[in-house]
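Whiteboard transcription, Tuesday session. T.W. wrote the structure tokens on the left side:
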């Protein structure tokens, strides 16, 4: 079988699936904008856009034009593959940035399996969720998001089948389309991501202060790709005055960059600095350590020594870091928001708190710090759930491979024809 993977940031969610298919003997090619990719058995080709967005366009259309520009660039790279003789049986593609828009023009008969991650809306999702950032015009916001969904709607018509990582993310799609999407998580390597009671974290923070921490220390961890409101950075920072005042030994570690991954950019400076400045006069800054973006091994060590790991998010896509924290046996405190509720059950494998209640968050962190033995059953259950529901080798990857085979044959997962 010939397979093509397409992802702007390849390998993205295909990090394990693409080489697994290559290991089965299939011919696997990939297209993306990543500078260089080395995956066993995967022939990777990079493409780039030829133009920037047009100045003066209607602001609601700028996003779609950017997707068309990327779709064109990807289609040209695909065309070169076709001219070299490559015709895929199946294209696995993340359509979120526009790359899938024109692939049917290159290979009309190739089946397409889309990674369907999210569908925009103003009800029950990230936009309009946080009263701190109210919609200045709800009607205009709805119109803007409707136009932004143009790419999503076009791709729902182009795909033969879809895959989403959580039930809630699939549920953001129009009801008529949800029956064409399988829910299979990307999966994590629970064998490698295991607890280590002897773990040691040795790192230097952004102020040049060296740290050496173990599970004997009182450590709170907070991880974002970038420190920003959509992942609860502001709510976390507002919990620190109470936490630090009542626990004189706790150390707070924040991992993440100063940029923006989701949502709007700040009016000036960085979200990190804005909310640090807000609490600066009420915290002991000597016990708050910003680590920035760290190597993966450092991130894992931080979670392994964590006494309380906080994960907060608007109703949006679920971060791999939450599932990894479960597998690592970290005591988890998470926001009571979807899709977090699919992974964390309050009092069973972690704790859920109101996203906006900084005092409740502080109280829960203090409880975890004061009673580490009481967290052991939850930590063990979280790891068991990670293995049972999200393990890469025994659960997720086999399901992904089976779905690829089905769609390539022109079948739905239940065996009916597509």
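and on the right, the sequence the group agreed on:
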């Amino acid at each position: 079988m010939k397979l093509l993977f397409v992802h702007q940031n390849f390998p993205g969610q295909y990090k394990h699936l693409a080489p697994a298919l290559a290991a089965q003997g299939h011919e696997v090619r990939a297209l993306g904008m990543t500078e260089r990719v080395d995956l066993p058995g995967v022939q990777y080709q990079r493409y780039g856009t030829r133009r920037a967005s047009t100045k003066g366009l209607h602001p609601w259309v700028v996003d779609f034009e950017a997707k068309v520009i990327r779709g064109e660039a990807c289609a040209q790279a695909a065309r070169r593959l076709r001219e070299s003789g490559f015709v895929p049986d199946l294209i696995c593609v993340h359509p979120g940035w526009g790359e899938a828009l024109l692939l049917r023009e290159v290979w009309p008969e190739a089946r397409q399996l889309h990674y369907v991650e999210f569908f925009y809306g103003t009800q029950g999702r990230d936009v309009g969720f946080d009263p701190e950032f109210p919609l200045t015009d709800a009607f205009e916001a709805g119109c803007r998001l409707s136009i932004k969904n143009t790419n999503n709607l076009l791709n729902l018509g182009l795909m033969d089948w879809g895959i989403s990582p959580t039930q809630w993310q699939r549920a953001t799609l129009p009801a008529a389309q949800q029956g064409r999407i399988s829910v299979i998580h990307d999966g994590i390597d629970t064998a490698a991501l295991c607890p280590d009671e002897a773990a040691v974290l040795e790192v230097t923070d952004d102020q040049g202060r060296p740290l050496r921490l173990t599970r004997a220390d009182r450590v709170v961890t907070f991880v974002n790709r970038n420190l920003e409101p959509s992942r609860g950075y502001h709510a976390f920072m507002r919990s620190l005055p109470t936490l630090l005042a009542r626990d004189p030994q706790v150390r707070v570690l924040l991992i993440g960059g100063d940029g923006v991954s989701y949502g709007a950019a700040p009016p000036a400076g960085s979200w990190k600095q804005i909310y640090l400045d807000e609490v600066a006069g009420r915290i002991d800054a000597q016990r708050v350590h910003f680590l920035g973006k760290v190597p993966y091994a450092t991130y894992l060590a931080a979670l392994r020594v964590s006494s309380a790991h906080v994960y907060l998010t608007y109703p949006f896509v679920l971060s791999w870091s939450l599932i990894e924290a479960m597998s690592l046996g970290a005591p988890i405190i998470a926001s009571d928001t979807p899709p977090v509720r699919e992974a964390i059950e309050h009092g069973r494998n972690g704790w859920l708190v109101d996203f906006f209640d900084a005092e409740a968050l502080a109280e829960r962190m203090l409880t975890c710090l004061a009673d580490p033995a009481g967290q052991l059953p939850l930590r063990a259950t979280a790891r068991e759930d990670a293995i049972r529901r999200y393990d890469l080798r025994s659960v997720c990857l086999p399901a992904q491979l089976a779905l690829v085979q089905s769609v390539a044959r022109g079948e739905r997962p239940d065996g009916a024809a597509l």
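Someone added at the bottom: The chain has two domains: 2-187+392-408, 200-390.
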